[in-house]
Amino acid sequence: MSSLMKLILPRPEARVQSGSQDSAVFNAMAKIFIDSDNNPETFLKENNLYEPLVTGKFGKARDPYLAYIAYTKGFCDDELIGITNDNSMLKHQARYLMKHHQPELWVQVLVHDSVHRRALIDCRDPSPFSDNCNLQNLLLLTSIRTDKEKVIGSINKLQNYNTGEIAEIATDHGLSTVSMQWLSMVSSRVSPPFTMVWTMQTRPTSVSRLAKAQLDGLRIKDAIDSYIKAEDPSNFAEVIEILSHTRKHDDLVRFLQMPHKTFREPKINTVLAYAYAKTDHLHEMEDFLAMTNVADILEVGEKCFEDKLYQAAKLLFTSISNWAHLATALIYLGKNQAAVESARKARNTQYIHSFKASILN
Question: In three state form, how does the secondary structure of 84-139 look?
């Protein structure tokens, strides 16, 4: 370490020892370690408090690999792709893409005009692609979606992929003719009955598998689009759990309108009613309430009241003639006379008197 670095390093080290978690302090330490070549790789891999984008930008002019480590830690996709392309670090790029399983990144690196495209997908030499079935599947799926005219060429380059699944998905993307050529070309890899079995399989089966994979990767909109395309609501429990947790209520409405038509399932109806409220789809909610349903309307109404969705709560409590709860919702909507009338319907004199008092106050 240079004399200058020895003088500078103690200051940020002292702040760290005093308990500082200021990212600027750790950025400074990262830069010192990089500039002095003082085991920077270990620091970049093990420390979680520096800013990967700032540190990576500093490190790329000194050692692109150190920038790669920083960008990897921070999921700085664009910067990582840029530095690995610029420095012929395509194996490192491939490892990153393999680890994170984001098809949209493959679309980004395999664009038609990329000068690195062929080097990335050419697996004839030993590379991370050579014996990785999942990666080759992903590469072929990317070709199917982004470069349909060159799918057969990609097949000729690759040797280790799931023929059946890829052929099914190719059909789903309008490439049934290509799929049959594909199966003919790789017939030595599959059993004789395979082609017959594959052609008898229905489209929703493969699309449903794609939807499940997209859901597992939290690609919510794509997953819901795929489930709707497959007309397959069977995974509703997991969809409800994930979308409720991520508060994707618009996508919940889109998905649950499908099983609502065929499943008399309280969970589906209850969550759909609440999703209508959360997305302010009150006309749809009114239509829903006018139909036969098995939702727990009281539970939904109480949740809406807690969320201050008073108009939705009013519709819900009205539909089940819960006059006491309705009266409270009407007060919050400023409809005092209607609230009194609702309280009278509840036939609770004490409630009416307390209600009048709350209005006067």
Answer: HHHCCCHHHHHHHHHHHCCHHHHHHHCCCCCCCHHHHHCCCCCCCCCCCHHHHHHH
- Rounded distance between C-alpha atoms, residue 317 and residue 300, angstroms: 9
Backbone angles phi, psi at 191, to 5 degrees: -75, 155
Which of helix, strand or coil describes residue 291? coil
Report the phi/psi class of residue 21: left, alpha or beta, with left for phi > 0 and alpha for psi in -120 to 50.
Answer: alpha
Please answer whether residues 68 and 83 qualify as being in contact, where contact means their C-beta atoms are separated by less than 8 angstroms: yes
Nearest to 278 by CA among 304, 259, 296, 255: 304
Distance CA 82, CA 76 (A): 10
Alpha carbons 166 and 151: distance in angstroms, whole number: 11
The residues, any chain, with a CB within 8 Å of residue 134's CB and separated by 6 or more, are 98
DSSP class of residue 19?
Answer: T
End-to-end, the C-alpha distance of the chain in Å comes to 75
- What pLDDT digit, counting tens, does each position of 112-121 carry? 556 666 666 5
- Per DSSP, 47 falls in state -
Cα pseudo-dihedral 122, 128, 134, 135, rounded to 10: -40
Single out the residue of 53, 22, 58 nearest to residue 40, CA to CA. 58
For 268, residues 6+ apart whose C-beta sits below 8 A from its C-beta are: 236, 240, 256, 259, 260
Phi, psi angles (nearest 5°) of residue 47? -95, 140
Of 95-99, 153-157, 158-162, 202-206, least confident by mean pLDDT is: 202-206
Phi/psi for 63 (5° steps) reads -155, 105
Q: Scan for tokens 């004399």, then name that residue.
A: 3
- pTM, to two decimals: 0.44
DSSP letter for each residue of 226-274: HHHHHT--TTHHHHHHHHHHTT-HHHHHHHHTTGGGT---HHHHHHHHH
